[in-house]
Amino acid sequence: MMDNTGKAAIFDLDGTLLDSMGVWDQVDIDCLGRRGIDVPDDYMTKVASMQFRQIAEYTIARFDLHDTPEQLMDEWDAMARTAYATVVEAKPGALEYLKELKASGARLGVATSLSPQLREPALSHVGMMELFDEIVSVDDAGNIGKDHPDVYLLAASRLGVEPCQCTVFEDLLIGIKSAKSVGMSVWAMHDDSSAGDWPEICDLADGVLFDFHNAPRQL
Q1: Rounded CA gap, 13 and 20, in Å?
Q2: 93 C-beta neighbours (distance < 10 Å), count
Q3: Whose C-alpha in 6, 73, 81, 83 is 20 to 30 A from the C-alpha of 113?
Q4: What is the CA radius of gyration of the chain?
Q5: What's phi and psi for 55, nearest 5 deg?
Q6: Number of Cβ within a 10 Å radius of residue 142
Q7: Cβ–Cβ < 8 Å for 44, 25
Q8: What is the pLDDT, as a whole number, of residue 1?
Q9: How does pLDDT run across 144-176, given as a tens digit for each residue?
Q10: Res. 63 pLDDT band, cuts 50 70 90
């Protein structure tokens, strides 16, 4: 039996534990579809790095919509909430892997950009909610995004584990860079949404995964 006592595993949600990146594409398709608009080829790329409100303002301007940013954000939020609570699935092998790590004495945490109203229904839906010792988001870290290590350090601190004893599971290049910058080990999860960065991710990460069946048993 492996022993991970005194160590922590910290997981991103979207694109890492959860196969959820397609939810947002579908929200865009459905939302614009209700207004008789097809999603242009360049739209997803244009909005990928924007904040939620920026996306709403850009969408209203680009398609000459009559909605306010608040109305559009509320609509997206309601659609996403339904999807996260009902259709989002875990990445293959994720649930079994979390149970194994917990049994081995590891502390388990989440470091995510997702708001509580999306992450909690999703984690309950996939049967993971009770497995985590701590769940933190960028909101808890002073709204500092994953281009800085704050959310990972906050998770480590709440788990009571030194950064050098933490292994982070993440699909985004900026998150991988941030976690590595504070001495954490990082395993990268392949996701279609960050496929363009994959060569650089492979160079930087301590290991790479396409699902959790081959994830490290010893942290």
Answers
A1: 8
A2: 16
A3: 6
A4: 18
A5: -60, -40
A6: 10
A7: yes
A8: 65
A9: 889 999 999 999 999 999 999 999 999 999 999
A10: very high
